[in-house]
Design a protein that fits this description.
- With 281 residues, the protein is mainly α.
- The protein is built from nine helices and six strands, in the order H-H-E-E-E-E-H-E-H-E-H-H-H-H-H.
- The protein is extended.
Length: 281
Amino acid sequence: MLALAEQADQSAVPDGMNLPAEIARRQARLEAMAAAKVKIEERAKARFEKEQAEYEAKLAHREQKAKESGKKPGGKPPKPPVAGPKAQDQLNLTDEQSRIMPVPGGGFNQAYNAQAAVDTSSMLVVSLTVTQACNDKEQVVPMLAQLAALPASLGQPKELLADTGFYSAKNVEACEACSIDPFIAVKRDEHHPAPQERFTEPAALPADATPAQVMAHKLKTKAGRALYALRKQTVEPVFGIIKSVLGFRQFSLRGLKKVSGEWTLVCLAWNLKRMAVLRPQ
């Protein structure tokens, strides 16, 4: 009877299946999903606290502006943030420190955001970082802190060139606080502007212009356009050569600390390659 019972129990089990191991695997998956849910809720809570602080700051700014002008502020009032996880919130079980980020051409990847500051004269990487944030606007202030910490013998940067993804009035003010002249694109410009636009100077600014307005005005001048043009022939080629010549298009390691180390090695390899070209002949 026992032999018949055991034969009946095993009759529907596919070859190679270990039922106890399969049950343990499924239980482990359920536990991993429960832990992931807790972490998603923690991230949602941190995000809500940050968005709530920004929302309150915007409200306070509108109230202060209304008090100074005596008029009701124009535009729609800011929307309050919504607490709790969103439907699209996810956690990668392979590398939970990575984040889902948009990629050029559409779509999304599980990724990190690698940053590099490049000297326009030598094309050497002078500062670098890897972040979990896909928004480049948050990377200017940390990069300024890294540049300020460089040895004095290397000198200090005089201008900062960056594309429109890095623009915000806060970043403009942060550059000026560090005695760095910012040239950050305010918006995407046309690739083929009218000829007269390339050979004319903008109208004078009013005396009460804000730092952001002053910077936008500089970008429209001949000297400002010439200086900003250096960005696409310095930092852009560095990333392009790292991808296409060095063949580095994705991280091999997992975790923010290891990925940061990997990006440091890649930039070091680029600098060595570049220094070999710059060495006296």
